[in-house]
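step=encode ok
step=design start
structure_in=
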């Protein structure tokens, strides 16, 4: 018969400490971190300030120089969206490329090894910022309308609320296109130049080269997104043209950039 003996722990021995399981940060927490990063850097902070100032300056200029009959809520709101849609993609690029330009990728992806969760949080953060910019345009337009009413302008509040959805589509698509180029190129200057140059070059070629005029109507985002602010509802063809252009300039570079970022070696 075999006898089993158990060795008792020596007197004074310390039992090994049980470490609590480390929980991975939630997507909500990661998004909050990425939102904070947008204002932590000097470039991101000043870009956000510039977006706010540009919106306020446009409304102020309209109050000074526009005819009284044109000083309406609608006329204050729509023009304030366009320059913001130009600046938001730069914010998306800076957010996506910050880990590589500031050499924090090693730390970030060591703390959160699943890179797609970090990228997802960055995309949600810039998307929320784009929606916040629409609310800021609404607020500034409301202030402009109140001032116009008090100073003899038209000050009318008539507004087609479908334009609010269209404005959100414009700003979200703009910032995600910038983020897509940032994810594809992972270099802030290169991504900014690529985002500004390639669609513009395509638009110019579409006007100059006759065989490209047909495809340009489907791939030039300036043309496909222009109907968002027309007085009539968008037709099925117009939605289709917009979808095709966003597929080329947003979804495709976003998908390729995601694969590249997941496979890139961090050093």
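sequence_out=
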């Amino acid at each position: 018969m075999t006898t089993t003996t158990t060795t008792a722990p020596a007197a004074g021995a310390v039992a090994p400490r049980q470490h609590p399981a480390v929980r991975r940060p939630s997507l909500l927490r990661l998004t909050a971190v990425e939102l904070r990063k947008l204002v932590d850097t000097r470039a991101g902070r000043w870009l956000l300030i510039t977006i706010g100032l540009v919106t306020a300056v446009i409304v102020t200029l309209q109050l000074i120089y526009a005819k009284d009959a044109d000083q309406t809520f609608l006329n204050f709101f729509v023009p304030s969206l366009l320059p913001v849609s130009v600046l938001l993609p730069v914010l998306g690029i800076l957010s996506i490329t910050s880990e590589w330009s500031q050499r924090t990728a090693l730390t970030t992806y060591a703390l959160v090894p699943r890179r797609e969760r970090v990228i997802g949080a960055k995309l949600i953060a810039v998307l929320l910022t784009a929606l916040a910019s629409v609310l800021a345009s609404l607020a500034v337009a409301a202030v402009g309308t109140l001032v116009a009413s008090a100073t003899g302008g038209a000050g009318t509040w008539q507004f087609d609320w479908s334009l609010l959805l269209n404005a959100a589509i414009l700003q979200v698509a703009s910032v995600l296109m910038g983020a897509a180029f940032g994810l594809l190129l992972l270099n802030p200057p290169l991504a900014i130049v690529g985002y500004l140059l390639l669609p513009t070059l395509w638009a110019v070629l579409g006007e100059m080269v006759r065989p490209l005029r047909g495809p340009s109507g489907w791939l030039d985002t300036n043309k496909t997104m222009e109907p968002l602010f027309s007085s009539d509802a968008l037709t099925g063809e117009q939605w289709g043209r917009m979808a095709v252009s966003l597929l080329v300039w947003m979804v495709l570079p976003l998908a390729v950039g995601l694969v590249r970022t997941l496979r890139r070696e961090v050093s």
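step=design ok
step=annotate ok -> The radius of gyration is 25 Å.
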